[in-house]
Amino acid sequence: MDQITLPQLPPPPGATVVRKAAMAALGRKLWPYIWPSDRADLKRRIYVSLALLLAAKLVTIAIPYSFKWATDALAEPASAPVFGVMAAPLAFTLAYGALRIAMSLFTQGRDAIFADVAMHAVRRLARDVFAHLHRLSLRFHLERKTGGVTRVLERGRDSIETIVRTTMLTAAPTLVEFVMVLIVLLVQFDWRYVAVVAAMILAYVGFTLVATTWRIAIRRAMNESDADANAKAIDSLLNFETVKYFGAEEREQQRYDKSIARYERMSVKTYTSLALLNAGQAIIFALGLTSVMAMSVGGVRSGAHTVGDFVLVNAMMIQLYQPLSYIGLVYRELRQAAIDLEMMFDILAEEPDVMDRPGAAPLVVAEGRLSFENVCFSYDPRRPILKGVSFEAPAGKTLAIVGPSGAGKSTISRLAFRFYEPSSGRISIDGQDISAATQASLRAAIGIVPQDAVLFNDTIAYNIRYGRSDASDAEMREAARLAQIDRFIELAPGGYGAQVGERGLKLSGGEKQRVAIARTLLKGPPILIFDEATSALDSYTEREIQDALDRVAKGRTTLIIAHRLSTVVNADEIIVLDKGVIVERGTHVELLAQRGVYAGMWSRQHDIRRAEETLRRAAIEEGGRLSIKIEAQGARGGAPEADEGQADAMRVDEDADIVSGA
Hints:
Elements: H1 15-34, H2 40-75, E1 82-83, E2 86-87, H3 88-135, H4 138-142, H5 146-188, H6 191-238, H7 240-245, H8 249-302, H9 307-325, H10 327-349, E3 370-377, E4 386-393, E5 398-402, H11 409-416, E6 424-429, E7 432-433, H12 439-444, E8 446-449, H13 460-465, H14 473-482, H15 486-491, H16 509-523, E9 527-531, H17 539-553, E10 557-562, E11 573-578, E12 581-586, H18 588-594, H19 597-636, H20 644-660
Parallel strand pairs: 5-10, 5-11, 8-9, 9-10
Antiparallel strand pairs: 1-2, 3-4, 3-6, 6-7, 11-12
């Protein structure tokens, strides 16, 4: 067993003060959610919950007295009163049962009434954070893992409930009970009992807090090792085929076993530290209980107290043990919840990079003319992306932007959507500076079909109707028809109600693109942006999608951002972007005649496409000869041994065709 040692490094000076200040600041942030100024009904629930809390604790203190009175009545039967037909011992025993029932009713009633307060706070804060996440800029989301952000949201939501319910339903009742017990001991006995019990409580709480702080570090290490082991297992299983390709099963087992071995070691430390914590708590409580019981024995012998008082002290101390045992749990949960909640409030404190200006007006689109005027932009000041880019996409015309990877093509679409603000220059629609317009009106005027059309894990109908949620079924079907996906949907099991899977993985690339086109069509924007909309598709699907895009673009201002030049040959104007600068512009024919960058790109892509066509024809011809050979040998009853290499060659050609993206 690994030896467990206490941390050697002391906390930095002022750490306690900082922690208290942070907790106080966290309480101030959380208070408006717990005490909503606009909900009088929730405030009434808080008042009723507090009243029930006090009533439950008064009954809790009365329960040991029923033991005392029943014991005294049994010890001195002659002097015991008679209540009707019942003697005192029986009456006090029945009173004990009634008090326990009353305590349970008060406690459960308090929990039920306060639940609405706690869950309303959870809902309001979670809703505010979720809405704020959508207000934050694209830069925030690109710099963080989506799973990490949603995990913060999930943990923060759980933390609100933990803090509110633990404080109200555990910490506050425990504190009230401590005070009541000390008052009873002072009134019923004397100050010495109070001093012993108070010392026991302080020692118990102090030891619990120190030991729990020590255990938190061990528990965190165990959770980290558990998460690491799970991550390795998930990553390995998600890459099942890759593991098989490289025969790496043993390697994966060793990686997983290494992580799970660390989890094993930390789990042993966790359980061992818990045993030490429980043992220390039991010793402290036993010493306190034994001390007051011994003092009570002396009081009974001297005649100052009755046997019932001896029972009273014992029952009260035993009853006090339950709230004491919660202290470590409460402290650990509150501390972890405070950390998680602080992370959530940190997200709320994030300011969006792009915000509507004060007095921003809705964008009024009459023609749909999009203009960039000497626009400069960089994600990092050390690496400029756009360097004084100027162009205009005339109303109802198609403008294409092409260039090598990293030239800044997709950045233009992000600036047009105002996901980022340009470092300098001006972007306008119909002469209106988009930075002076509201973001909602700007984005309503622009529709985009991206390279990677990500769909919601819902039905096809939901994803198409996402373009305009109030669209009728007829409008949705017409959008699907224009996007040339209506036939596929009608033949698919479930039709428009078919599920597309996570990120649309149940659909092919072309089908996802058509759904994205239909979604954008249903939105009906005057300006369209096709951002590498066909670059991830094979040649056949690309031609089909391109036909749909051409049909969609008619009568709309269209900006095509493309790497494949075959998709822009019919554009009214083509801009060639290289290293953030426009190096050429003109029609397809004009640019070819210039024999510059565009002509070079066209030549290279044309050569690749011609080679792909040659490979495809060769594969088709080889496949025809192979089928004839097989039929002839089959008629003779022989096996086509010599043709296995040819079949492999054909498969290689087909694979090359697929990989090339032809």
